[in-house]
Amino acid sequence: QVQLVESGGGLVQAGGSLRLSCAASGRTFNNYDMGWFRQAPGNEREFVAAIRFSGSSTYYADSVKGRFTISRDNAKNTVYLQMNSLKPEDTAVYYCAARRGGPSLVRYEYDYWGQGTQVSVSS
User: Fold this and answer.
1) Residue 50: closest CA among 41, 64, 40
2) Of all residues in the chain, what percent carry a pLDDT higher than 90?
3) Per-residue pLDDT reduced to its tens digit, 17-76
């Protein structure tokens, strides 16, 4: 089992920045590929970013490419999502997720999920 706890969400004005953190416990963190997803009211949960267990490869949704950066610190069992130039359409609950077998853009392929953290961007 892997337990994931997100933090760092909040209310920010358009153009601002936030950094989300996801702290992992349980199984060996550095064996797991990690992803960030988000879900806005009335929408399906969508892929945002993913990172390989080693940190050597990262992947982004087109909607956040160039604005968001995913990273991880395996010594701290934590994955981060740095979000810059935030837009109102980035408003959602953000979830981190873990899996083994390679980063994935597909939410059904992740085995473990956090409880989510709310990000709200005002115009």
Assistant:
1) 64
2) 95
3) 999 999 999 878 999 999 999 999 999 999 999 999 999 999 999 999 999 999 999 999
Helices (H), 61-108: none
Report long-range pairs for 71-77 (Cβ below 8 Å, ≥24 apart): 72/34, 74/29, 74/30, 76/23, 77/23, 77/24, 77/25, 77/29
Are the beta carbons of 1 and 112 closer than 8 angstroms? Answer: yes
Q: Which residues contact 47 (CB under 8 A, 6 or more apart)?
A: 35, 37, 61, 105, 106, 107
The letter for the amino acid at 8 is: G
Question: Under DSSP, is residue 15 helix (H, G, I), strand (E, B) or coil?
Answer: coil
Per DSSP, the residues of 20-67 read EEEEEEES-GGG-EEEEEEE-TTS--EEEEEE-TTSS-EEE-TTTTTT
